[in-house]
Amino acid sequence: MWYQTEVTEKCGIQFPIIQAGMAGSTTPELVANVSEMGGLGTIGAGYMSPERLDEEIQQVKRLTSKPFAVNLFVPESFDYTEAAVDDMNDHLQSYREVLGLETPKPAAHDEDVFKRQIDVVIAHEVPVCSFTFGVPSTEIVTRLTAAGTVLIGSATTVAEAQAVAHAGLDMVVAQGSEAGGHRAAFQQEGTTSLVGTMTLVPQIVDSVTIPVIAAGGIMDGRGWVASHVLGAAGVQLGTAFLTTKESAMKPVQKQAILNSVETDTVVTKVLSGKAARGLRNPLIDDLENVNDKVLPYPIQNDLTKQIRATAAQAGNVDWTHTWSGQGARLARETEVKQFIHQFITEAQLQVDRLNV
Ligand SMILES: Cc1cc2nc3c(=O)[nH]c(=O)nc-3n(C[C@H](O)[C@H](O)[C@H](O)COP(=O)(O)O)c2cc1C
Question: What is the 16 CA–ligand 1 centroid distance (Å)?
Fold first, then answer.
């Protein structure tokens, strides 16, 4: 069958359809239902403590015996001053007053957490582990590979994809600029050189020998078949899964995506300190006006996250982050099993038409 590729073979799955590990937006039900349908569900574990990750893996394993993945953030170095933190906190004070929040300090960001997340992945013999924001060290790649875990890296340029391949990972996600959420970029500013999926995928396919997974703007079967024609051995979808019943995104945010159009998103660094695509809102507009005060990731994220979480909880989409890709018009209010069934049916229809 056309959909049997190196991705299905290496991951031990039926269809090369990967649900992106979206930190903060996945649930064990989302992950398990994708895997139950023959795709690859992914726990978005970037912000999880090792203890929480351990719990989530156990929950997923209770729901499915099929392969699944864990997605982690490769830690980066960053620099900031207390004065810059105070400056940004002063700017955010008016939001905290309305929401009744204390002024936070940046979190500790102990690199040991990443090593302990890897220990949990190995202890549970997780079949697949994907990474974003960089390439894990040789030591980590060697340990995971020895444990039998299939490794997926993420890239937004040809050079990044080559770095992923060179580091010995098994596959690479080619993340086009249409993609929702944080950009995987680790060699250059995520807000510049935005290369779209249709341009990026074939150039990466021509430049590496490992299988390439297309991501960014793939919302229906047409996007899957187009990616396949461009040489991708699989697809990774984020936004399309956000509006499923099983995603952890708040109902008001799901509705905002369902009501949005292709021009409603922006790539911005102001919410977290790292380039991410989401629905433009008044909080983004306000912070863009003080762009020079924005701290690097993950410090900016630490300073804004309580405001965003409290606002989302209260149903206020103006002061939160609603990460979303440019394919918003194609988003559906659905359930995972129904979505995957339709996605496969649509793709097969396109393949049948191409054969005529
Ligand atoms: C809400 C949201 C959160 C995301 N979080 C992560 C993450 O934690 N790790 C990661 O590798 N990619 C993350 N991504 C990016 C996805 O891996 C993927 O590149 C993107 O969703 C593909 O584009 P699409 O949203 O148009 O499908 C996130 C995307 C969204 C929409």
Answer: 17
